[in-house]
Amino acid sequence: MSDGIVRVSAYQPPAWLRNCHVQTILPNSPLRRRASVILRDEVLELPDGDFLRLEWLDGDGPIVVMLHGLEGSSQSRYARGVMTALRRTGYRVVLMSFRGCGGTPNRLDRSYHAGDTGDLGYLIRHLRETHKEPVLGALGYSLGGNALLKYLGESGLDGGLSTAIAVSVPFDLQDACAAMSIGAARFYQRLLLGRLKASTKRKFNGRPAPFDLRPGLAASDFEGFDGQVTAPLHGFADASDYYRKSSCRPFLKRIRVPTLIVHAADDPFMTRAAIPAASELSECVTLELSEHGGHVGFLAGRSPLNLQCWLEERIVQHFADTMKASGVSAAPPSPPSARSRSWRRKARPVREPGPAAGLRRD
């Protein structure tokens, strides 16, 4: 099979946005307004007795499945922004919260991890069986992007997707773990690790844990937490085994659907050594690489008070190009009602599904 494409991205930030930490932090700061959207909750029951929380931004066009990053949710600013951009151009978006994310602990002891592809596959099959609108593609950020690319490599032409986009992917989890344990990147590790620990504590508050969680909750880095919590919860021998089996990098050559990867060489969550070469990509994969952009950044604008998201425009353009090539057109979005213009969805957890589990919660 021929190699994939690695090309220079069209993204060119202004001079004041060429610092990777500015690019990484600003999109998640109050300087970037969190888009106000109307989301509809759905609880999807899983074959193993657990459930997934789905959040829909409804429309009449093709469906785009979205996967968030580590401990992300529909409250994440990047999620709100791109969902709004896609809806504005005629798509229907469904955000899949990984197990235990989105405000409600899942039922089983297991949670989610970077290589967890089973739930995504189940969701796509469910959508294809129950919705008349076609499932166009999927969009994954960071950890969600890793899971998406691994899924595409595992499923080949049987994954149920026409295209995919992955943003700021930690291609090699061992590399990412090491990169976030040194220098300024330790700030992100402390922040994300704190959220992981808090989520774990909430889940096992009032219910017995399958093993002693104290060593993992006392860990000072990802490798310590993953070795003591993530790995044993999900059947891995240790952290190294988890990273080796869950990294998407070995699966990139097996992807069989048009896939765009958007990445910045200065991403502080990993080293440049983690960026795959064209020979590691299948001919269906295009990696657009920019020198700047940070982690899920790719901002533009004249000043912090005039932030614009180049990334959202690139994502919309890729989906539009894919649809044009396939002869499918997105439905024009219906104009928002007075209620939808003024109503802001409040963050709230989904209640644990009861006997009527699987019903949509509007």
List its traits:
single chain; 362 residues; alpha/beta; Rossmann fold; ten-stranded mixed sheet; two-stranded antiparallel sheet; globular; disordered C terminus
Give a quick summary of the entry.
The protein contains eleven helices and twelve strands. A ten-stranded mixed β-sheet has the order 1-9-8-7-6-4-5-3-2-12, with helices on both faces. Strands 10-11 form a two-stranded antiparallel ribbon. The protein has 362 residues and is an alpha/beta fold.
First-to-last CA distance: 47 Å
CATH class of the domain at 5-172 and 247-329: Alpha Beta
Order of helices and strands: EHEEEHEHEHEHHHHHEEEEHHE
**CATH-scheme architecture of the domain at 5-172 and 247-329:** 3-Layer(aba) Sandwich
Basic shape: globular
CATH superfamily of the domain at 5-172 and 247-329: Alpha/Beta hydrolase fold, catalytic domain
Task: Write a structural description.
With 362 residues, the protein is an alpha/beta fold. It has a domain at 5-172 and 247-329: Alpha/Beta hydrolase fold, catalytic domain (Rossmann fold). It has helices at residues 20-25, 77-88, 118-130, 143-155, 173-179, 186-203, 214-217, 222-233, 239-246, 310-326, 338-342, and strands spanning 5-8, 40-45, 51-57, 63-67, 92-97, 135-141, 163-167, 259-264, 285-290, 299-300, 308-309, 360-361. The chain has a ten-stranded mixed beta sheet, with helices on both faces. Strand 6 (135-141), helix 4 and strand 7 form a beta-alpha-beta unit. The longest helix is centred in the middle third of the chain and has 18 residues, at 186-203. It is globular, with a radius of gyration of 20 Å. The protein starts with a strand and ends with a strand. 46% of the residues are buried. Mean pLDDT is 89; it is low at 333-362.
